[in-house]
Amino acid sequence: MSAEINSIIRVEQIRELIIFVRGQKVILDSLLAHMYGVETKSLLRAVRRNVERFPDDFMFQLTEVEMEDLRCHYGTSKTRGGRRYLPYAFTEQGVAMLSSVLRSSRAIKVNIEIMRAFVKLRQILLSQADLGRRIDRLEKKYDAQFRVVGQFEIS
Fold this sequence. Notes:
Helix 2 packs across helix 7, helix 3 (about 30-35) packs across helix 4 (about 40-50) and helix 6 runs antiparallel to helix 7 (about 105-155). About 65% of the residues lie in helices and about 10% in strands. Strands 1-2-4-3 form a 4-stranded antiparallel β-sheet. The chain has helices at about 5-10, 10-15, 30-35, 40-50, 65-75, 90-100, 105-155, and strands at about 20, 25-30, 60, 90. The chain contains 7 helices and 4 strands. By secondary structure, it is an alpha+beta fold. The chain has a single domain, classed as Roll (Mlu1-box Binding Protein, DNA-binding Domain).
C-alpha cells in the first residue's frame, strides 16, 4: 500500500464505516466520497452517468425510516450536512463497480483498501458464526451431562 493512501485510510478505519442496512454490509455515499477525495455530488454524478452498472443489489437509496434508524443507532446528524436527498448506500459489489467509473489513481488505491476491509469483515463474521456453533454444541453436550447429574442428586 502506498504511503499516500496509508496516511489517509486504513482497513481498520474503513471497517468502522461499514454498516448493515437491509441485511447487507454497505458504505454511505458521503463516506465513500470523502475517502476518494471527491465531493459527494461528483461521486453520484459519475454513478448516474453509468447507472446501468449499479443495479439495486449494488446501490440503493435509503428511506426516511432507515435514515432515522441510522441517526438513532449511530448518532448521525439530523441535518445531513445540508443534503436535499437521502443518501445512497453502496454494497461491496457497488464499491467494486465504483472503481470502473472513478478513474483516479487515488480511487483505485482506496478501492483496494475498501475491498480488503469487506473481506476482513466477512472473515470476522464467519469466525463469530463458527464460534457460535461451537458454543451451541458445548451447551447441548454439557446440558445433557448436567441433567444426568441432576437426576442423581434429586434421587
